[in-house]
Each structure stands twice: as C-alpha cells, then as structure tokens.
Amino acid sequence: MHQETSVLEKTYFDVEKIRGDFPILSQEINGKPLIYFDNAATTQKPHAVIKSISDYYRESNANVHRALHVLADRATSGYENARKKVAKFINAASSDEIVFTSGATASINLVAHSWARKFLNPGNQIILSEMEHHSNIVPWQLIADLTGIEIKYIPVRESGILDMDAFDNMLNKNVKLISITHMSNVLGTVNPVAEIIKKAHSFGIKVLIDAAQSVPGMSVDVTQMDCDFMAFSSHKMMGPTGIGVLYSKKDLLEKMDPFMGGGEMIETVSVEGSSWAEAPHKFEAGTPNIAGAFGLSAAIDYLENLNMQSITAYKDRLTHYALDGMSKIKSLQIIGEAPVRGSAISFRMDGVHPFDLAPFLDQHGIAIRAGHHCAQPLMKKLNLSATSRASLYFYNTFQEIDVFLEVLDRANHFFLK
Ligand code: 7TS
Asked: What does CATH list as the number for 2-30+307-416?
C-alpha cells in the first residue's frame, strides 16, 4: 500500500484539494467510487472551466470580430485573449502563430490541405511513424491520393521506441515533411522530437508534432523545440471538446492558402473573387467555438496555477508506482518499455480479452479503455489486435492505483479459474 503522502509533498501538490475542483470525480459508478483512468481519451473538467463557459453564455455571448457593441467586444477580447494565452503557454513567438481549429485532428488536416497539397509534388515523400494515431495517418493518405506523394513510416522496435537508425537512413532531399507524435497514446513512449527536428531541418524538411498527448502533461516550448507545426486538443487538457490548436511558424502560415472558405476569413469578397484576411484569421472560416476558447483559457490558467513541472513530476511518480505494481501481477504484460514515457499504460492479461477486462473493471468503478486505440498499424506491428489501457492524470491518486491493482489481481483469478 502506498504510504501517507508527506507533508512536504502535500504542500507542493495537494491532490485531495485538487480533486475537490472536479465535480465529476466525486460520484459512484456501479456502487464504487469512480476511478477515472481514461485520460488519454479525454480529461475531466474543473469548476473553473465549467464556470468560464457558463459565464460566457450568461454574460458575454455574441459573435466575434463583427458587431460594434459591448457584448461583441467582450466575446472578441475573450476569444483573442485565449489565443494570446495559448501562445504564451507553448512559448510561441506571437499569437498570430495560433490557429483555433476543432481539435488535433482538424489541425493536422489543415496542414495537409493548406500546406502539403499546395507545396508537395509527385516524387516527394513524407515520413510518419508506425506508432501514429489514425489522425496522423489518414489525412496524409488522402493527400497522397491527391498529389502522388509517397508515405514512409519510421519502424517501432519491440520495446516501443522508434528505430532511430532506420530514421537516419530515411532522410533524403525528396522528404518534405515529418509528421510525428510527441507521445504515443498507446505505449506512452515520449519520442526524441528535438533530435528528429534538428536532423530534419539539416535536410530542409519541415516537421509537424502531434502533441495531443504531451501538451496536457508536460511543459512544451515550440520555440526551443523549433518545430514548424504543432497540433493539440483542448479536451485532453481539461478544456472543452470542439476546440483545438494548430501552432505554425508565421512565415509558413502566410504562404499557406485557406482550407475552408466563408465568413470571418476574408478581406474582401466580390462576385469576381475574394482576398483573404491575414493569418491566423484566414484559417478560421465561420463562427468559431467562442465558448470553447473561454473554457480552454480557464484550463490553461488552472494548469499554470498548479505549475507544469509539478504536474509532470507527480504524474511520473504515479505512473512508475502503477508500472511497478502491475509488473508484479502474474500473467500481466505491459506493452512498451520506453525509458522516457508519459502516463498512458497499455497492457495484456493472459487468457483475458481486453473487451472482457474493461467491463470487469467498470463493475468496480474503474474506467479504462480497451481496443486498438486508433493505432491499427501499431497493433499490427506488435502483433496484437487490442490492448487494455490505463491512462493517468494529475487528479488521480496512489490510493486509486492500489484499488486498480487489487481489482486486476481479482480479474486474474476470476478469468483464470
Ligand atoms: N493524436 C494523438 C496522439 C491522440 O492520442 C489523439 C486522440 C489524436 C491525435 C486525436 O485527437 P482529437 O481530439 O482530434 O480526437 N487520442 C485518443 C485516444 O487515445 N483515445 O481516444 C482518443
């Protein structure tokens, strides 16, 4: 059993106090206290985020960038302040480098259509990896069909890390883009993106980082990393669904054409043709998710108040505590042994299908995910059809992990009897 949290730790990271900010966590599921371990899919929302959305609708609801009245002014400044907050949070050079989209998937599709379709030609190559989420595979396959470019995949080793020697051999002057996940949603592996970016740039290759799993739990600095594009979703970092971010270096955004046309993104429109607003607005056609931007802004405030370094440190300790306990359970195998990793833990239990294990855990109030996790090429590579996945966030506790381990042990006996 985990020992009592020390007074010193409590001062730095008072998880009981934090849990009080998340109304959803205090309920019972199937007669047991909810243990929410499906955070890689989506995170829960604190009062402050829920309140910011309802306050927006109660006090400031209006369309942005259009009318000359007080409510429109409040909505517009809240929306644009959220853009500034995101820029500062990831250390972008300017808020003009932040495009609001509907999520990480939409951000990647935006780069595929507005950048790749315009600048790539038959014979060009793009590099992905075998551990990508479908959101970072399918958009490129659609573009490959349209442009005749070729897609290559960095192999994943059995231990769940990228084969960097193979990567080195894939670099050549025909490669124009590398689009790669910062952290695997299945294995938890944190990829050496700084090294990948440095090598790519020495060949003049642009790099898109899929940061859907990393931005919520670690400090990410786009200027230091020097990536060209970065995509992430608000809902995986306690913000609402339906809003996400594309970060892009400004000179690239300026050269890209809009992906969608409509209101908000134009400078002038005539029957003969139209001209576009400056970036980032030319990529935000139609009424955006204004309430979502208010919510995302409140989520960033919450993360910054807690401090990202403290969040990462606490989450790392939780993850290693869980990994340690799980490794002691007979017939359980953890999938992925990356030395640098986040808090998504995939595993298998001998003789138990993940689709049977997840409902068993649910009976005990524990929410995990089972399946291919939208990473079918990775599953194929690892010779698996599905895994069970527990993914932790900073409002989870050591005591919850103790219960999880106990229920896993019970499952082991239940299914093997
Ligand atoms: N990239 C990665 C690495 C992800 O984990 C996900 C979502 C996405 C992109 C897509 O994000 P969206 O917000 O646009 O849908 N991952 C998962 C998951 O692991 N379980 O549910 C969603």
From this structure: 3.90.1150.10
Q: What is the pLDDT of residues 104-117, one digit of tens each?
A: 999 999 999 999 99
Q: What is the tens place of the pLDDT at every residue in 154-175?
A: 999 999 999 999 999 999 999 9
- Å from CA of 267 to ligand 1 middle: 34
CA distance 66 to 284: 14
318-335 pLDDT per residue, tens: 999 999 999 999 899 999
Residue 133 Cβ contacting ligand 1 at under 6 Å: yes
Q: Which atom of ligand 1 is nearest to the CA of 103?
A: 14
CATH topology of domain 49-305: Aspartate Aminotransferase; domain 2 (3.40.640)
Ligand 1 and 389: CB distance under 6 A? no
Arithmetic mean of pLDDT, 350-357: 96
Q: Catalytic residue at 227?
A: no
What are the sequence ranges of the domains in the chain? 2-30+307-416, 49-305
Q: Is 189's C-beta closer than 6 angstroms to any atom of ligand 1?
A: no
pLDDT in tens, 187-234: 999 999 999 999 999 999 999 999 999 999 999 999 999 999 999 999
Of 374, 384, 399, 402, catalytic: 374
| d(C-alpha 129, C-alpha 199), whole Å | 16
| Å from CA of 232 to ligand 1 middle | 9
**Distance from Cα 212 to the centre of ligand 1, integer Å:** 6
Q: Is 373 in the pocket of ligand 1 (CB under 6 A)?
A: yes
